Amino acid sequence: MSTPRGPRARRARAGGAAGVVLAGGTGSRLGAEINKAFLPLAGRAIAGWSLATMASVEGIGPLVFVVRPEDRAHAEAVVERGLRRRVEVISGGATRQESELMALRRLADRIDAGTVHTVLIHDAARPLVSHGLIAAVLHAAMESGGAVPAIPVHDVAVADADGFLAPTAVDADELLRVQTPQGFRADAILDAYEAAARDAFVGTDTQSCAEQYTDIATTWVRGEETNFKITYAQDLLLAQDVVAAERLSPRWG
């Protein structure tokens, strides 16, 4: 595993991209006895869908699959079953933030060498992310330094201290529901995560850490309603319905 280093000098854009898929959760809220990332979806593990789709996107080179130590056997089976390219399976940390840092440290030497310029980080629990959305996030991140997929939210309300509805504090058109993959310039996001580790800062997602520790003005691209996160049993049922209705199949890379 790579060790922490000092801040990296900014480089001119060069190199390619790396993809990271996080599968550090459990199946508790889903009512499953195993990590939900390894539950079947149309005959393939949930995690296998996004791994395969990310592998099919031009410009993405290294793929890092971050799992709990106890799930390594499941992860290796997913990789060996269908993907036709190498996936680096590594153990993550106790939190999402630590798992992202472990993935970035895995890529650190390649980031320093300039062979990895941009990193996309995705939740394995969002299996139906499309090839087009990943490509759009990658393109936007390479252009601006940081990008996330998001969907505008209009059906919101604010309650006051007495429990009555109050005017929203912001224009509803400014509210976004953020998804993954989230893409950032590799050297900047690695430095950000190292700084966060030193400060014991824990963000909600990759973008929150970038906002705290970089000067990147993160842009957003239109997300997809089908790129939802599987958290509860009904989410898995919905994913099965989407697969059936759209006749989807994993794009094994």
From TrEMBL:
GO terms for biological process: isoprenoid biosynthetic process. It comes from the Bacteria. The keyword Nucleotidyltransferase applies. One of its GO terms (molecular function) is 2-C-methyl-D-erythritol 4-phosphate cytidylyltransferase activity. Transmembrane segments: none annotated. InterPro entries: IspD/TarI, IspD/TarI_cytidylyltransf_bact, ISPD_synthase_CS, Nucleotide-diphossugar_trans. The keyword Nucleotidyltransferase applies. It holds the Pfam family IspD. Its EC number is 2.7.7.60. Keywords: Nucleotidyltransferase, Transferase. This is 2-C-methyl-D-erythritol 4-phosphate cytidylyltransferase. The lineage of its organism: Bacteria, Bacillati, Actinomycetota, Actinomycetes, Micrococcales.
